[in-house]
Amino acid sequence: MIRQSDDLRETAGDIDGVPPAVIREGLRRMIAARVFDTKAIAMHRRGKLGTFPPCAGQEASFVGAALALDRERDWIVPQYREIPALVAHGAPLEGIILYYMGDPAGGWWPGSVNALPFQISIAAQLPQAVGIAWGLKRRATGGAVLAFVGDGGTSEGDFHESANLAGVQQCPIVFFVSNNGWAISTPRARQTAAASFADRAIGYGYDGVTVDGTDLLAVYRTVSEALATARAGRPVIVESLTYRVGPHSTVDDPRVYRSEDEVVPWRQSDGYDRLALRARESGLWSDTDELAAREEATREVDAAFERAQAAFKPATRQLGEHVWAHLPAQTAAQLQELERRNARGERE
Amino acid sequence: MIRQSDDLRETAGDIDGVPPAVIREGLRRMIAARVFDTKAIAMHRRGKLGTFPPCAGQEASFVGAALALDRERDWIVPQYREIPALVAHGAPLEGIILYYMGDPAGGWWPGSVNALPFQISIAAQLPQAVGIAWGLKRRATGGAVLAFVGDGGTSEGDFHESANLAGVQQCPIVFFVSNNGWAISTPRARQTAAASFADRAIGYGYDGVTVDGTDLLAVYRTVSEALATARAGRPVIVESLTYRVGPHSTVDDPRVYRSEDEVVPWRQSDGYDRLALRARESGLWSDTDELAAREEATREVDAAFERAQAAFKPATRQLGEHVWAHLPAQTAAQLQELERRNARGERE
Amino acid sequence: MSEQNLVSAIRDALQIELARDERQMIIGLDVGKMGGVFRATDGLQAEFGEDRVVDLPIAEGVMVGAAIGLCVSGFRPIVEMQFLGFAHQAFHQIGQQLTRLRQRSQGRFSAPLTIRAPYGGGGKTPEFHSDCYEALYAQCPGLRVVAPSSPTEAKGLLLAALRHPDPVLFLEPIAGYRTWVDDVPEGDYVLPLGEARIAYGNENAAAVAVVSYGLSTQTALRAAASLAAEGIDVVVVDLRSLSPIDVGTLCRVVEKAGRCVVVTDAPVTGSIASEVTATLMERVFWSLEAPIVRVGAPDVPHPLGALEQFYIPTAEAVADAVRSTLEAH
Amino acid sequence: MSEQNLVSAIRDALQIELARDERQMIIGLDVGKMGGVFRATDGLQAEFGEDRVVDLPIAEGVMVGAAIGLCVSGFRPIVEMQFLGFAHQAFHQIGQQLTRLRQRSQGRFSAPLTIRAPYGGGGKTPEFHSDCYEALYAQCPGLRVVAPSSPTEAKGLLLAALRHPDPVLFLEPIAGYRTWVDDVPEGDYVLPLGEARIAYGNENAAAVAVVSYGLSTQTALRAAASLAAEGIDVVVVDLRSLSPIDVGTLCRVVEKAGRCVVVTDAPVTGSIASEVTATLMERVFWSLEAPIVRVGAPDVPHPLGALEQFYIPTAEAVADAVRSTLEAH
Ligand SMILES: Cc1ncc(C[n+]2csc(CCOP(=O)(O)OP(=O)(O)O)c2C)c(N)n1
Ligand SMILES: Cc1ncc(C[n+]2csc(CCOP(=O)(O)OP(=O)(O)O)c2C)c(N)n1
Ligand SMILES: [Mg+2]
Ligand SMILES: [Mg+2]
Asked: What are the DSSP E strand ranges found in chain B?
């Protein structure tokens, strides 16, 4: 089999206007996302990881959106499921792993990564996202914010207040609604009577657009355009139509509330498979590439889990770290007392 | 001058499809609203009434909306400015006066009046309105809820969560947005970038409509239709375009934040004047009617103020009344102690 | 009597009340087909229908607010707050609307609803799922706050809450859902609301009174057992009701013992333990032989799972406090 | 020094800090042209521009949340909460987001912002405008809570808050806005955050320590004056910082006096007075000659205007408590 040189293929021509380098990176990252997901679920089963939210089915959506960002100046404000997006933006895997091991030391990214930490309270990160965008604008950085929220999250007051203020302040922000059909056991249809989440934008005075979230190219192009609009001071709501193929989390059993029939078509329109097919046709991707990507991802993920496990040293001391800039004296005393107590190993 | 008999005029023919009886009641109630407003402001100046929110400019909007209701089965959920609507629905003036005198004894209406009390926290009454509508539907009463909120109130999370849930539960509710141009000193344009508040409805999966809030007939017809839609399980957002001609409250001075030029055209399109002109042309209204209505209103308002002042007997005892069904023993003891103390008249 | 864990006792109470009173309904997140994230409403939608057991959009504020409105329309909704930590989103509806409907309407309307909320550590949950926020709600006049300490207690107190004319926040210790097992009375079983109970020991013979509630009562009971082995007799007062507090029982027992340790799982500052201590200070000061000691979590947020073991107050900490109280003079 | 009332002292501090640090901005309701409902930001938009003094839609949650985000982008917003009672709508953003950004990001991000909020009675306001909700916020680890008791204190503490690396909730007693008048130091004037002060009396000679903060310090001072006329010497400890509390000063003074009255304008249950009392119980029990007494409002919501006169704790109530404390034995 003749294998084109990477260089050649990187310039072999766009698909749907998306450059080959992005397509190949997208494919690699989707593979890596699946590898990570699978490993994380396995580690949870072995008791090595806490409750974990798999993203199977949403890889194209998360990766496509993140690749549209300019890592130097654009920000991601995540909820908890958008791991592939954060990784594409530069967040280290081991931090993510440590976080899901229940170690707060993992919940952050180095200063070069323009992203907030995970945030668990549904939609409560959105007001902060608007504030960041507002600040970027005031500083005239040209940067924009990509704020993630789920279909369920759109029902919260925080979603509304944020989307509305973004319009008023003309903030450079894209609200990315991952409409994956479910909020735990609650189907999209019980989340709102609206026909689409993109339609919400009308009520805030800007544009909304719905995109096929299993089509990485479409997501990439849509988010790229949305970011351009946002940079000009007009927020955008992007609704990504996708599906949570797996459980809500590693402690959820979706069979209780949905039939496998519903899942099947979504498995069949897997984002990676769809793009890989087209990329193969265009000579941008091959079995060898796939294998290599999978091997590399496995190596990286395994190494990250090892690093995380080595770094995992939960300690009483961490309880009070970074709660305050100036830890109050009484709290410091409480924590010292607790450290002494815990050091004696009296815990049941 | 020949004066038609009342009977004749009540059947003299509709204007814009609104029956004469409604038109005449609307005119009388708008006059009464203005009389009440004026007296309340005067009483505030004389220190006999607390901070009071005048509704000048919005009479047509409030009265037109309330007259569309079926008092037997429909509910009003007010904020604080909708006094003419509450009065049209049966709320006693003296209760309203007592409330604004700062006496909690005034904050309620008799059991025959389907309305919640005033509620001051912006938009926080809306979730309750949805719950009432939900309950009316479950009881199959055929009743609907008219929930009032201001342009400012639409920015709150409570507005969104309520509007969205109403759609999901298909509640018989009409959200009546009194877009009076201002939220204290904040102009409508800084409240949202959306072109209209009616457009919000799209994002909730139902219809929104904007109506000229200085045209009582238009408001009446629009709310009537909206109620019919709502009774069938489809909520409606009605945006009433109106204007707060007076100050936000008796302690506000609008000259600080808006120019008198802006107010002039609204004064000129006064809801009463507009409708009275047409009613006069149709033979439904006359100077005599106007005079009679004003005299009657003045009598009623004066009497209500007198009754309120006679009833006004603030007492320590009231502090704990109706806070609990079962007042906790310690709280009862605190209040007894306080009653004793206050009876000694030691207050500074 | 039948052996039940906490979830099952709660489900039992819900089932009884939905069957008995058709005004009762359950609303919340994932309470329908899924039966709630802890399965406390399992099977209830199938039994009582989609009109009475209703899955809602994710919006805690309107969840509580709509429940208030449903009361006005004559229903008695039971709100399942998925976790107490998410009631923050509904704080204005709980602390300012739910509690004031009655007074604002001078008694015409009331909101006799119950909000059930899992809370407390032990589950290694993500952030906000375990924080002990109960003292925030005990500051809301007009709202009762109740925390059961066993499956039997849960059944009896929940049925009482569901029938009470005042709104109740009913706190369910996550750590107990599966692990607490009890012989729970069958059928209708109602405990009084607002009365503390003696959960352990003899109030006339105890050297120290240990005051606790919810999860911390189990901690106190473990401490009591180990102290008994050392020959130290304590009496454990389980508050049950955090608002209002049963001051009568509390004072009676502490007056007799003369020494007292108050246990909470919450950060100690501003906690229920502080309120209990202040109340005792005012009322039984002259009977105290030693300062009352609060045992609680440090004043930092409930940590992520891996640190939880270091954070939650232990039986040993309670026992130490009892010992130190006995040594104090 | 210049004679200033509370509003003017606050405006002064804001003006100084906006001029000094261009990261500072003011956001909130009606803070622009109108200069805030109490005029505390009067003229600041004209001086610093619409980018730095910004009127927002009515949405308290996003007001605080966006301020957090602005901090991440390098700004230091000052949020004017129109009234403390409306911070309930932002309770999740304050209690769970603002307080956790630093820990969640392991110190990378922080939110050194200040929320200013009018609170407390005396203004005969509509519901929610006067309630003393401060103890709710003192339960949020990661958030400082400060309440000044005079114009000078307000200026010094506000400037300290605006420069502090931790978020601060700054409580402004409505009753003091126009009526408190002081000789306020001109120019930059910063007081320490987290230290209580002796507002009156001699801690070495006082028979009773009266602990208070914000509005209640003025009440305590009036009580002190009338007690002095009777020959009773008290020392008034003005907490200034409600979270964290300056336990050192508190204990030192109360230990010396041996008797203590704690005053709050809030419903007494779950109040700052309860926390102060519990802390003193643990730390200075052996020095106490009488039970500590809390003086506060009854456990009911702040009433509508006409009843306010019956509700707010009076100097006479404080003086009575002091007298009863002296009689106790
Ligand atoms: C404020 C709040 N309420 C409830 C929860 C519990 N909860 C966790 S995930 C989830 C569903 C979220 O659904 P969606 O927004 O669609 O995101 P997805 O999980 O599908 O990615 C819920 C209700 C929460 N974390 N925060
Ligand atoms: C939650 C909340 N935030 C702030 C306020 C203070 N406030 C009282 S009235 C008002 C303006 C309301 O404007 P709008 O909703 O347009 O009603 P209008 O006064 O014009 O009738 C504000 C901000 C409040 N009452 N409640
Ligand atoms: Mg979803
Ligand atoms: Mg308005």
From this structure: 75-77, 145-150, 173-179, 182-183, 186-187, 207-212, 236-241
